[in-house]
Description:
There is one protein chain. By secondary structure, the chain is an all-alpha fold. It is built from 7 helices and no strands. Helix 5 packs antiparallel against helix 6. InterPro entries: E_motif, PPR_At4g14850-like_plant, PPR_rpt, TPR-like_helical_dom_sf.
Amino acid sequence: MVNDYRLEPGYRHYACMVDLLGRSGRLKEAAWFIENMPIEPDALLWGTLLAACKVHGDMELGKLAAEKVMELKPCDAGTYVSLSNICADVGQWEEVLKIRSQMKGTDVRKEPGWSLV
């Protein structure tokens, strides 16, 4: 990309790569890609991996991705909800309760969704 187009890849380029790897189920490769990028990963990259972990039911890697997002964006309720949903999908109800109580302890609130018809 740099040689052919003289274009430095940015966060969105890296997020697209993580998304492509994640959608194809190559979650460990996506995590390796994030950890070995030439720039410091941000919450967008880890959140992209977290979403892929939800789709493919990888609770262990999902926890790692969620922890990284929480370090970078501690007030992001979506991260807590995504992680608790991953745990619920695999029947880890005690973990769900722990995550939800952790949310309450940090005063993070999920905004209720709504729509207009």
